[in-house]
């Protein structure tokens, strides 16, 4: 850009490429123009190598600013077309002043008057309470629909979709065996090691076997398996169903006359109800092996003695008290995942948020249910 | 003066499947170039190669003189700032509002632009494509199909590119909406002196907007002006331009001439 003063005022001769990618340079050049003391400004654009809308918009801003400062602005020759295009596009159309408010700012009515902090806090609590209530009602409705679909499927076994169920048994069960086994092994070793350290002071190391057996079979085996599965499969359910919702696949099913609860939700619930107890059996076995490894290697307990203690510790109920919880946990995990997946709408951010909610809720529900089982079994005396 | 876009000897292969075998293509400044081809002939693969989304096995692709097959990192990024693209389904970022969608390329490439100027420039682009001002605050899920296409066009124009790629811009629109989009595209092409490359199946759109057409047949491209390509002897091109659906355009063209 060239600039020189004439007797009538300031003359600007624009040169070079005035394009979006050179905005920084254009902005700096125009900001450096000193308008003070000038009555008249003449702008020549015939030597511009290029002018796009971004450049034209910046030039228009400059002209408006100059006019506001009381400077007469004129173009040498005709003003460039691009400037006219910007002018026409930005001209307020239907609603006068609609475009004059900078976009991105909240409209005035939302900003409103400053609200007292106590009122805002109360409003916040109220909003959250209502949202929580609706969420609970929604979850109950989901459980109701699922039960209805399950009852219907029991009476019409053909709608059970065995192939789909088998796929979910494979995805949630078989492929989870390595990680579940590894975690059960490590946890049982930790339990055995900790208890060995404590029991050693009483000379009662022999009871390490009892502790591992009861701990793993009653609680740890099923609980840890459920938490791992909640992280693996609860999230997968929510993400799968959620992306199908975003892709309108769920609507396509519905439009074809297929109930998405029957086609998507029920096979997942059934698959998990089958696979979680089986995974728990694996975790229990590996847990006992882990205890054996520690007892034999660290406490130098003969293997047959460990086996004897284990069989002594197992009463008729020990194994079943653990395993009976697995299907209940499975229903909770599958429901949390599928329910949140079905709630996804609109954007990929929702998908991420609801997948997170599904996993957190599944783990919470599993632990809550485990606590209720503990109370129940205590009352029953098993 | 080199062509705006020049593809030479392009080869794309997926395993045993040869998609392009020595494809040549040349787009000149200020024209509307249509890419036509049957399903599975590699229109999308061609576009993805040109956009630098996948590397071809052989060949050169020059955009304004820069061979993008040889570029990477910052140099490739600089070339990518020089063109705009709209994808078939719009590909608007679903967690951002229309205004934020248009601003995203500006934030990425125009660091010098202050937030207030960004707001106004994005608004300028949104109004330029004929969207109402209140569409700016809406999210993609709240827009109709036609509005999604327009919002995608506004985003493609965010950096005022001189080269614009449109992938099936009128698919999924009703004939009136599609015609309106064609007119909008022609208006912008004239006003902003754009070079437009578009993939399309829409015969109405081709006859209304394209100066030259490239047809992908037998893994290569046959290019000619619209008036001459309809007489090309290749059977697929004959079937395409002389089928039942195309005949009305040819009659109209004959009467007009």
Essential attributes:
heterodimer, A: 382 residues, Transcription Regulator spoIIAA, 4-stranded mixed beta sheet, two-stranded parallel ribbon, 70% helix, B: alpha/beta, 2 domains, 4-stranded antiparallel beta sheet, globular
The proportion of residues in beta strands of chain A is 5-15%
Radius of gyration of chain A: 36 Å
Tell me the β content of chain B: 15-25%
Overall morphology of chain A = elongated
CATH class of the largest domain in chain B: Alpha Beta
Give the distance, in angstroms, between the N- and C-terminal Cα atoms of chain B. 32 Å
Secondary-structure class of chain B: alpha/beta
Question: Structural class from helices and strands of chain A?
Answer: alpha/beta
Short description:
Chain A has 382 residues and is α/β, with parallel strands linked by helices. Chain A has helices at residues 23-31, 53-68, 81-90, 108-111, 117-155, 162-172, 177-200, 208-246, 249-255, 260-298, 303-313, 318-323, 325-343, 348-380, and strands at residues 2-6, 9-13, 16-18, 40-44, 48-51, 72-76. In chain A, the strands form two sheets. In chain A, strands 1-2-4-6 form a four-stranded mixed sheet. A two-stranded parallel ribbon of chain A has the order 3-5.
Could you explain how this protein is built, in words?
The complex is a heterodimer of chains A (382) and B (257). Chain A is an alpha/beta fold. Chain A has two domains: 2-99, Transcription Regulator spoIIAA; 162-380, no CATH class. Chain A is 70% helix and 7% strand. Chain A has helices spanning 23-31, 53-68, 81-90, 108-111, 117-155, 162-172, 177-200, 208-246, 249-255, 260-298, 303-313, 318-323, 325-343, 348-380; strands at residues 2-6, 9-13, 16-18, 40-44, 48-51, 72-76. A four-stranded mixed β-sheet of chain A has the order 1-2-4-6. In chain A, strands 3-5 form a two-stranded parallel ribbon. In chain A, α1 packs parallel to α2, α8 (208-246) runs parallel beside α13 and α8 runs antiparallel to α14 (348-380). The longest helix of chain A is centred in the middle third of the chain and has 39 residues, at 117-155. Chain A is elongated, with a radius of gyration of 36 Å. The relative contact order of chain A is 0.09. Chain B folds into two domains: 1-82 and 164-227, Rossmann fold (3-Layer(aba) Sandwich); 91-160, no CATH class. In chain B, 42% of the residues are buried. In chain B, 39% of the residues lie in helices and 24% in strands. In chain B, β7 (163-167), α6 (175-191) and β8 (195-199) form a beta-alpha-beta unit. The longest helix of chain B is centred in the C-terminal third of the chain and has 17 residues, at 175-191. By secondary structure, chain B is of the alpha/beta class. The two termini of chain B are 32 Å apart. The mean pLDDT of chain B is 87. A six-stranded mixed β-sheet of chain B has the order 6-7-8-3-9-10. Chain B has helices spanning 43-50, 73-80, 98-109, 115-128, 145-156, 175-191, 203-209, 226-229, 235-242, 247-256; strands at residues 5-14, 17-27, 32-37, 58-63, 66-67, 83-86, 163-167, 195-199, 212-217, 220-225. Chains A and B meet through α1, α2 and α3 of A and α3 and α4 of B.
């Amino acid at each position: 850009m060239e600039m020189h003063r004439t007797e009538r005022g300031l003359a600007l001769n624009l040169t070079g490429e005035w394009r979006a990618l050179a905005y920084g340079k254009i902005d700096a050049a125009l900001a450096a123009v000193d308008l003070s003391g000038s009555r008249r400004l003449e702008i020549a654009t015939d030597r511009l190598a290029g002018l796009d809308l971004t450049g034209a918009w910046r030039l228009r801003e400059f002209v408006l600013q100059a006019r506001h400062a009381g400077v007469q602005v004129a173009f040498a020759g005709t003003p460039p077309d691009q400037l006219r295009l910007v002018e026409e596009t930005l001209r307020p159309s239907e609603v006068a002043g609609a475009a004059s408010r900078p976009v991105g700012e909240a409209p005035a009515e939302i900003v409103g008057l400053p609200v007292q902090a106590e009122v805002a806090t109360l409003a916040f609590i109220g909003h959250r309470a209502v949202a929580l209530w609706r969420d609970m009602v929604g979850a109950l409705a989901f459980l109701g629909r699922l039960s209805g679909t399950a009852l219907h499927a029991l009476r019409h076994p053909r709608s059970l979709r065995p192939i789909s169920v088998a796929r979910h048994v494979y995805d949630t069960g078989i492929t989870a065996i390595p990680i579940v086994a590894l975690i059960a092994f490590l946890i049982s070793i930790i339990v055995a090691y900790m208890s060995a350290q404590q029991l050693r002071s009483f000379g009662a190391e022999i009871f390490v076997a009892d502790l591992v057996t009861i701990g793993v079979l009653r609680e740890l085996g099923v609980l840890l398996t459920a938490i791992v599965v909640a992280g693996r499969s609860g999230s997968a359910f929510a993400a799968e169903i959620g992306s199908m919702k975003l892709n309108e696949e769920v609507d396509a099913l519905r439009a074809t006359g297929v109930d998405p609860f029957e086609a998507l939700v029920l096979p997942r619930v059934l698959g998990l109800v089958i696979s979680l107890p089986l995974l728990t059996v694996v975790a229990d076995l590996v847990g006992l092996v882990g205890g054996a490894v520690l007892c034999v290697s660290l406490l130098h307990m003969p293997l047959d003695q460990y086996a004897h203690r284990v069989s002594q510790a197992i009463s008729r109920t020990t194994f079943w008290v653990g395993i009976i919880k697995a299907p209940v946990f499975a229903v909770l995990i599958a429901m949390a995942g599928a329910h949140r997946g079905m709630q996804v709408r609109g954007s990929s951010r929702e998908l991420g948020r609801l997948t997170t909610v599904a996993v957190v809720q599944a783990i919470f529900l599993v632990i809550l249910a485990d606590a209720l089982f503990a109370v129940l079994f205590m009352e029953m005396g098993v | 003066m080199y062509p705006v876009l020049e593809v030479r000897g392009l080869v794309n292969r997926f395993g045993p499947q040869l998609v392009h075998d020595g494809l040549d293509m040349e787009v000149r400044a200020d024209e509307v170039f249509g890419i036509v081809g049957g399903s599975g002939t590699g229109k999308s693969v061609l576009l993805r190669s040109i956009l630098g989304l996948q590397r071809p096995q052989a060949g050169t692709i020059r955009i304004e003189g820069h061979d993008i097959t040889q570029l990477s990192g910052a140099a490739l990024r600089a070339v990518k700032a020089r063109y705009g693209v709209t994808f078939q389904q719009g590909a608007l970022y679903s967690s951002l509002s229309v205004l934020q969608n248009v601003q995203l390329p500006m934030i990425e490439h125009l660091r010098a632009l202050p937030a207030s100027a960004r707001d106004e420039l994005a608004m300028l682009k949104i109004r330029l494509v004929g969207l109402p001002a209140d569409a700016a605050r809406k999210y993609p899920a709240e827009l109709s199909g036609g509005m999604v296409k327009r919002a995608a066009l506004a985003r493609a124009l965010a950096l005022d590119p001189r080269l614009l790629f449109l992938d099936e811009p009128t698919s999924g629109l009703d004939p009136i909406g599609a015609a309106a989009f064609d007119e909008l595209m022609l208006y912008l092409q004239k006003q902003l002196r754009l070079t437009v490359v578009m993939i399309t199946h829409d015969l109405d759109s081709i006859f209304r907007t394209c100066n030259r057409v490239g047809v992908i047949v037998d893994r290569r491209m046959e290019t000619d002006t619209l008036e001459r390509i309809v007489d090309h002897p290749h059977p697929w091109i004959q079937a395409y331009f002389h089928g039942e659906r195309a005949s009305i355009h040819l009659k109209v063209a004959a009467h007009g001439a």
